[in-house]
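BUG: 3D viewer hangs when loading the predicted structure for this chain

Environment: internal workstation, default settings.
Expected: structure renders.
Actual: progress bar stalls at 90%.

Input used:
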Amino acid sequence: MTDVTQAEVASEFEQHRTHLTGVAYRMLGSIADAEDAVQDAWLRLQRVDRSEIEDLRGWLTTVTGRLCLDRLRSARATREAYVGPWLPEPLVTRLPDASAPDPADVAVLDESIRMALLVVLEHLTPEQRVAFVLHDIFGVPFDGVAGVLGVSTEAARQHASRARRAVHDRAPRRSAPPDEHRAVLEAFLAAVRHGELQGLVKLLDPDVVLTSDGGGLVQAARRPIEGADRVGRFLLGIVEKARPADWAAEHAIVNGEPGMIGWVLPPDGGEHVLVGVVTVDVGESGLVERVALVVNPEKLTHIPV
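Structure tokens produced before the viewer hung:
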């Protein structure tokens, strides 16, 4: 490429970066890994003749899919050795001030980035996950998916079908509308803040499950916690252990849904430290059915402070 041509291609590539990062994030569940995959796609684009590519967006999507497939295959051993439950790296949008829109109003109703769905996708094979993301979420034809996977079109169709069944069977449906979700979250936070175990338990489904991801770097439950009383006591225990440090929580948009981010203010008056992200799934009954708590500091680095 000449310098002029390279600059033009770079400009074209930037127009597709957000789309490619979205594709990669849904496949990998990690913002950092997604950005690395997109950067690798850019490097590959620099090594080909742009004039030979008719559909740049499609070409880049295919290349990014292949790169993610390789990463998923190599990550299996790493995930198996991961300490405790693994949760996706949260996508967080902070609300700038008290006059900002209600998070229930600005939540993006995008099922494909919900924390609960990404957790289910983690249980698929790499081939199933790539096929599902490319075809079912981004509408890539099966012949294109087959090219990414290196299989026949029919095999690609079967990978997507198996993934679709798993998602249907395991992914919780979005039950509560955003305004109700926000109201439950408000009550949930108030009960935790004031140490009201009974009030907190009343907000939890009897079969609620809490999953916390510390990655072995900070204290977190090594296994999911089940049951309203156990989950309630665990959450209040976290607050108690934070003392004498003060703590604060703020509403945010987490993976397109109302959520919370938590801060701790050290006793010496130092800067607030971001310590976790919380999301809850509210069922048809209006009770919290699942709680996801991401406290692994390596998964909080992309959150704006």
